[in-house]
């Protein structure tokens, strides 16, 4: 309960104060302790002010009043502007003003051991004091200073309303003893408060420590490594879940038992091994760190042997003496199984790499004679005998188409190997988007016409003139594949390509290209499978488009003539495929930074959409020259002087005849060194210069790259006076 803030100096009212001032009482003339700030600070440190009554102080004040036969006994504490009573026997208030306090004199330096006023009315220092002239009508005062931590914080005082004779020596000693008991109570109270604080902090720290111990215990118990601990007598004190799981020995069963119990029931050939383990544990509990010893434990359920590789760390007490050991193990058998699996995976990966390398090499080696074969077939188709024999022409066309199909399959296998090994990279450049799209459409437009299909191409006018930075070759490869699949699996109706702009900024252009058809469609549960590598279905699955994966649209138009798409004329949806086309297309789209999505309905049709965000081409870089296939096949070629550099006689024969059939003048060199010599000679005499050099890359003596470097090192030829096309090497 709060103490009443009552000051006797103001209780008499204004008229009483005026009378006191007329009698000469001046409160500000009362003494002030010279170290009052330090004294008050010491008082506040004990946290006594404005606290509730406490029985020890009250009992002491009551005992003092009765012992000295006075009506009032106070434990008075002198604050900044008041004196506050921790105990007040015979006085109904808790504080008075400091200016009128007798205790102010009792705590002054140089004051007597007991400050005693026998009759305040006769003492000129106090005769005008409002506490003398008014309630509580003090006439006698005896106060002993309470000195705590070297500072007088207050007094134990005796007050009477009538004059009294001085205390005798015995009474003075007794009052000093009472005051000392008050000081003891103050210190004891402070110690009790400090003890409460320390105890509260201790409880808090204990709770935190217990929580941390539980956390550590949980971590150990749930660790993915077998962990156990033993004391100095090898009695198990900890056994986590992992070691319980491995050995089928529950913690409740083994904790408190000796680790040597593991030897009971173990096969005789393992007992000696366990004894070695126990000796290693004994060294650990004696203070030695023991690393990497093996412990064989027999499972108590299924009887299998668990081989642990254990490291033991000594446990030390506060004095640094060993009291046990903590052991961390590893399941050696499981580790060996994992290592074996890892070895198998590495072997499998190495085998796959060798397979991909072999596939790439074989694809290259197979394409060389196959290109020669296709060239010879092309020459045969151009001969007069073929032109005059319809059946022979049909057979040669069928052979050429089959060879083209085989070449495309080899190219697909090579692309697949590169994609799976991460070795296929893009060759980005600046190019205009819509001409590249139209070029892909033009390549296959005649195939749609042959099947009687409407081939519709819709281009967003917003894309006209848009130049982007990407790989046009790979983009064309994807479009050719999608268009060919649509044509192949549409018996009647239409194939539609729509190119539209979906977003545009200064930095990029969002493009959506959709290829749709009215073909046989794909079942819902098979639509995602068509994008998997090697997934294809045979002739009987006419309701599925998985068989469309036999052809992938190659992008490099310089490698295929537009008039020779990659399947035989009249191929049907029943043709089984290698399952590579759409797999390659999706992987290429991912490399291009886009997405490829498919939606289809059986007997209705299929739509495949390609979405790309292509960087806008910056000014200053020219679009690369169109490959030769971009030229219309009906356009006549000028007559050029061609140097053919090739080490394969068969390829030389095919290329030479094809070029001569097109009206070109052909010279032959068998390797790079011969080619460099021919070029240097032609430059020296000026009589015969080459307009075009067609050169193989992989040749003996000097390869194509080395020869090109030698060409650049040689002096350039003089400008020609005619208007023929620029020379190219």
What does this structure look like?
With 729 residues, the protein is of the alpha+beta class. It folds into four domains: 8-194, Beta-Lactamase (2-Layer Sandwich), CATH 3.30.450.40; 223-336, PAS domain (Beta-Lactamase); 394-628, Heat Shock Protein 90; 636-713, Rossmann fold, CATH 3.40.50. 41% of the residues lie in helices and 20% in strands. The chain contains 19 helices and 21 strands. The strands form five sheets. It has a six-stranded antiparallel β-sheet with strand order 3-2-1-6-5-4. Strands 8-7-11-10-9 form a five-stranded antiparallel β-sheet. A hairpin with a 3-residue loop joins strand 1 and strand 2. Helix 4 (55-68) packs antiparallel against helix 7 (169-222), helix 11 runs antiparallel to helix 13 and helix 18 packs parallel to helix 19. The chain is elongated, with a radius of gyration of 54 Å.
Please state the overall shape, judged from the principal axes of the Cα atoms: elongated
DSSP, total strands: 21
CATH topology of the largest domain: Heat Shock Protein 90
**Uncertain stretches of 5 or more adjacent residues:** 1-28, 537-576, 628-634, 717-729
The strands making up the biggest β-sheet line up spatially as 3-2-1-6-5-4
- The residue-averaged pLDDT reads 81
What is Rg? Answer: 54 Å
Named CATH architecture of the largest domain: 2-Layer Sandwich
- How many distinct helices? 19
Structural domain count:
4
Distance between the termini: 108 Å
Biggest sheet record: 6 strands, antiparallel
Amount of beta strand: 15-25%
CATH H level, superfamily name of the largest domain: Histidine kinase-like ATPase, C-terminal domain
